[in-house]
Amino acid sequence: MKRKYTEEDRIIRFYTTIYGDEGKHFSSHNIDKAKSYIHKYFKTLGSIYPYMDFSIVKARFGVDSEYKRINELARERGVSNSKIKKIEEETILKLMSPEFDDVGSSILFGEIYPFSDCISLSKNDLLTDISELQFSVRSEAILRRNNVNTIEELLKSRDKLHTFRNLGKKSLREIEDKLNMISYK
User: Which end of the chain has fewer beta carbons closer than 10 Å to its terminal beta carbon, N or C?
Assistant: First the structure.
């Protein structure tokens, strides 16, 4: 008879899979917090990376629905068990990569994640200095070097960001994430 995972088992398994012993220690002592962080984690990642499909990993760990075994998911989707396993492994490897680590660890361990709330701006707010958006020192310095000093200038230069010298992937992602959270009234 196969073991039926409890919700607590799945939460600990998720944290352990992504963050090893550190994740296991945190999640086993904070089950309720860990559960809410996992929901926030996938919601945030889904908004930042809309092209990624997290549904298989979510189903395998029982996030947003009942826990499902590989054969159940394969039958539902009309693919082989090995295909489901491969997708799950690839997604978990991506979640463990540095690209996702900044977002993931800050959410999964309850740290403040600066992009979690929408930034609502009025016409007067467009003249606000970019320092109010709390970019990293490097990102802000690159923006200023390219004569982007206000939120209005930042919004206008959105399409040119990739041409800014010394603006790496991480800084570009930080700026784009912040821009995606701005709603203009």
Answer: N
Question: What is the spatial distance between Cα 30 and Cα 185, in angstroms, rounded to a whole number?
Answer: 39
Q: How far apart are CA 38 and CA 16, in angstroms?
A: 13
Q: Can you name the residues that pair with 119 across neighbouring β-strands?
A: 182
CA dist., res. 146 & res. 26, Å (int): 42
Nearest to 180 by CA among 119, 132, 111, 112: 119
In the chain, what are the domains?
Answer: 7-108 (no CATH), 119-184 (1.10.150.20)
Tens digit of each residue's pLDDT (9 = 90 or more) over 31-73: 777 777 777 777 777 777 666 778 888 888 877 777 888 888 8
Q: What is the pLDDT of residue 112?
A: 38
